[in-house]
């Protein structure tokens, strides 16, 4: 059915000799013709993101597109970067299903071209109606199957994988890699419905852009999940597709779809580390988490910190000493490398390390103490109790 819509869009664009974008009733881009001639930033952005921005949707709603019985001309808005348009509502059985959009400039659409678009709208609406029925049923089955697949119960996962593969939703012989996207929120904030919808729209855009049935997705209450055949999509694709700040975690591939829950658990942990440890960056691969791979296996608060480090963390004035200590331990206790990395004179470095020993009641010549301090600093990062002012690159 999607192919039929694309054929209808291309045919109409050719007949009126003007680029066309077809949107559903929520103004998500469904199909578009070759874009030639005069374009604006809104047209380019809507095609790239697969949906129209809230500001433009509000502008067009006020122009009357949801209540118009037939074609109407909508005004441009220089402030929004929006050129004038001809909008043709697509209705089936009186139900609004979408919109046909033409840029109405350079030159204006003629009455004959507008009439041709209006005549084509019922056929577009019928195709949209059939696709909404098929997609709704398929989406519900997919949602249930992917939820079971990620539940971690072997029996349920095997059945769900079989359902998805037999329905053509995932290739049988390919491994699966799971990616998790979590929104970046202000302290104390919760994920709202708008953010959840934004994340799901982004993953749907990634799936459409892959142009093959090699991906599945699931929107959960505080994160979104993407399952891909073979290796994961490039994280930049996800960051660019989701119109809100997110961190991304990636699990290791599993040989078959029924084992996706393992990759999902790793992706969740990686996203948690990316959210809590800014030094990791906006994307974290579980296989590259280093010591955090170990630390995330323990429940929060189940591991105690070094007692002396606890005392130092309680006072903000000790933050420079903790930053120096972490760099020193990250560099395997090399004074030369630490001085170079921090651009600190060796004498000043030794003074700072001596102060750490005094304040924490520790001996940095003791390997066990160094290990405990090092792990404690990483745990403190995960818990948010230790936040370095600047991140030092050790590469």
If you had to describe this structure to a student in words, what would you say it looks like?
This protein is α+β, with helices and mostly antiparallel strands and 395 residues long. The chain has three domains: 2-135, Beta-Lactamase (2-Layer Sandwich), CATH 3.30.450; 173-295, 2-Layer Sandwich (Alpha-Beta Plaits); 307-383, PucR C-terminal helix-turn-helix domain (Arc Repressor Mutant, subunit A), CATH 1.10.10. It has helices at 2-16, 41-49, 54-62, 111-149, 154-166, 193-210, 235-241, 260-276, 291-295, 307-313, 319-330, 335-342, 346-360, 367-383; strands at 21-24, 29-32, 72-74, 85-92, 95-103, 176-183, 215-219, 224-229, 246-250, 283-285. The chain has a five-stranded antiparallel beta sheet with strand order 2-1-5-4-3. Strand 7 and strand 8 (224-229) form a beta hairpin. The longest helix is centred in the N-terminal third of the chain and has 39 residues, at 111-149. The two termini are 51 Å apart. 37% of the residues are buried. The mean pLDDT is 87.
């Amino acid at each position: 059915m999607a192919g039929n819509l694309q054929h209808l869009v291309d045919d109409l664009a050719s007949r009126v000799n003007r680029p066309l974008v077809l949107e559903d009733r929520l103004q998500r881009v469904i199909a578009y013709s070759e874009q030639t001639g005069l374009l604006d930033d809104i047209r380019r952005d809507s095609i790239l993101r697969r949906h129209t921005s809230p500001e433009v949707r509000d502008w067009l709603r006020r122009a009357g597109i949801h209540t118009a019985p037939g074609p109407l001309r909508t005004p441009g808005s220089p402030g929004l970067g929006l050129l004038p348009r001809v909008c043709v509502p697509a209705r089936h059985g009186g139900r609004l299903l979408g919109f046909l959009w033409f840029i109405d400039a350079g030159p204006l659409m003629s009455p004959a071209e507008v009439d041709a678009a209006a005549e084509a709208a019922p056929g577009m609406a019928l195709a949209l109606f059939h696709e909404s029925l098929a997609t709704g049923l398929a989406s519900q089955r997919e949602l249930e199957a992917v939820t079971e697949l990620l539940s971690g119960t072997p029996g349920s996962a095997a059945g769900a994988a079989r359902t998805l593969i037999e329905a053509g939703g995932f290739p049988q012989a390919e491994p699966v890699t799971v990616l998790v996207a979590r929104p970046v929120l202000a302290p104390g904030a919760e994920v709202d419905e708008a953010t959840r919808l934004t994340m799901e729209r982004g993953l749907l855009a990634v799936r459409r852009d892959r142009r093959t049935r090699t991906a599945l997705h699931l929107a959960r209450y505080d994160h979104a999940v993407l399952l891909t055949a073979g290796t994961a999509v490039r994280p930049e694709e996800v960051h660019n597709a989701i119109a809100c700040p997110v961190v991304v975690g990636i699990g290791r591939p599993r040989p078959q779809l029924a084992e996706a829950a393992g990759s999902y658990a790793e992706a969740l942990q990686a996203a948690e580390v990316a959210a809590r440890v800014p030094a990791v960056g906006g994307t974290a691969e579980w296989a590259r988490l280093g010591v955090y791979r170990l630390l995330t296996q323990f429940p929060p608060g189940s591991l105690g910190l070094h007692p002396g480090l606890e005392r130092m963390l309680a006072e903000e004035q000790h933050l420079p000493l903790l930053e120096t200590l972490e760099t020193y331990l990250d560099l395997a206790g090399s004074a030369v490398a630490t001085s170079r990395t921090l651009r600190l004179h060796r004498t000043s470095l030794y003074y700072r390390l001596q102060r750490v020993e005094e304040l924490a009641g520790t001996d940095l010549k003791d390997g066990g103490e160094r290990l405990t301090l090092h792990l404690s600093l990483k745990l403190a990062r995960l818990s948010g109790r230790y936040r370095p002012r600047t991140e030092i690159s050790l590469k």
